[in-house]
Amino acid sequence: MNTDLQDFSHKRYNILTGEWILVSPHRAKRPWQGQNEDISTEKRPSHDPSCYLCAGNKRINGETNPDYKDVFVFTNDFAALQNDSKAFKVEDGLLKAQSETGICKVICFSPDHSKSLADMTPAEIEKVVFAWQKEYKELGDIDTINYVQIFENKGAVMGCSNPHPHGQIWSQSTLPNEVDKKDKQQLAYYSKNKKSLLGDYLSQELEKQERIVFENGSFVVLVPFWAVWPFETMIVPKRTQASILDMLPNETLQFAEAIAAITKAYDKLFNTSFPYSSGIHQAPTDGNENKHWHWHMSFYPPLLRSATVKKFMVGYEMFGSPQRDITAEIAAKRLQELI
Known about the structure:
The chain is of the alpha+beta class. It is built from 7 helices and 16 strands. It has one domain (4-31, 39-336): HIT-like (HIT family, subunit A).
């Protein structure tokens, strides 16, 4: 391991976005006198009569959820995107705007209100993977949908308004900012090298074994060299695949196993139900081949030093660039020890 990267301030380059992150490993030794968050000791029931996501309960819009037994998907009652939005464009000097349409869905991972992905078996999580595949395919086949974003916000600190195990799927007519950056970076590399950018990066990580957290036959969980969040991780398929539809039948369970491994490790890290935002970045559904894409799933957890100390993006990070103290290598080692 390069000791300079562990002792001195430096910048690391994110190959997927083309942006830099400042790393300050020496600051990890400083005492903490910042804000401490409260630890949630809430014990949730397996069914909450007041929860609008539990099986058989009535939602805000008056509809009643079916008595579902595993995964349940429905159109978001408070969708951020309107499918029937009026088409318009504003170009007034430096003022620019345009209409954006889309479809937003909610996916309940389990009927058990007390669970999270960390409490589910790989076989149970695989059913969630199947639902993700189904929604990506069906939404992506709609002419006006050019990108499908699958994500989860876990924990109140991440803005999650309901503790029931669930995620969301937003599909829209244009590429979101982060996806657009990754699309351009991967396309540029593929056009020059005729190979996957993330595939070549993964080969280097597997050779070095410095940031690998978990590995099975088809997937690798690692802390990216350029990670921003303290214990950020990425799940990457070993085979170059443009989207989750490219997984072979035996790979969906291994993907679920990787999700189970990292979410369980997170919960063990600070002995708490670990909050995070996670999301899958994959090929646009714009009808192109998108051979340059190599899909991946990222976890962005905010906890820094304990269950009560959270990292905030403030100051220099808002006005300069992202910054972290604990290095990716140290974070990976700590997570690896918990699996």
